[in-house]
What does this fold into?
Amino acid sequence: MKGAATMAFVVLASISCGGGGGQPAPAGSSAAPSTQSLPSAPTSATGGAGATTPAPTPSPTRTGPPPFAAKVTPIARKRLPYSWRPGCPVSHQDLRLVTMTYWGFDDRAHTGELVVRKTVTDDVVTVFKKLYAMRYPIRQMRLVDVYKGDDYDSIDADNTSAFNCRAATGSSNWSNHAYGEAIDLNPRENPYVTASGSTAHANAKKYAHRPMRGEGVINAGDRVVRTFAAVGWGWGGSWSGTKDYQHFSRSGR
It folds into this structure.
């Protein structure tokens, strides 16, 4: 009996102290990092001016879409053949390429590119990380040089873009885009609308009024406007008279 009791004690001790190797971590106990490095989009093998091949789409995790990732790098002059030229209000050396994850209208993660001034890269990454977390859909995010620097063509393609050395619409003064301190977000769903209520883009006419519901649409005081406002950026939809629903800028203009 004494031997049996001893053996039972050994077995019990083994169960209580041994075979566990630690309890499994509770779900959600390991947070993903806020940003990850992404490779810059490779240039096209054809070598055409401004041509690029799309960056690879991030791989999903086992539990869902990939986490937001962003990389900020200097941008080569050759990648700005149309959007920058001598005489622009900022040097191309003061610009940065932000390569980052965005959520698409197809409910999938994609990798896009924006060119902005180096002084606002933190603002931009902060905003787009939040937009990705809320699954705000973006049609596409390509350099305006893909459209040979033509703002009309970029808008018509519903392209989200930033830097473009051009004058403000209807003005001879530099646009905030020429400083790399403005972003046009989903310009088809959020058009530039004159005081009379018209827009130059036929495919955007049904979006010319606010408030309205719809994917990618921005309304006064909504979470997109609040997200930009949190980093000090103003919205063109709050202007009196002309409304620029796609436009966010550091200066508010």
Remarks:
- The chain has a mean pLDDT of 84.
- The two ends are 90 Å apart (CA to CA).
- The chain is about 15% helix and 15% strand.
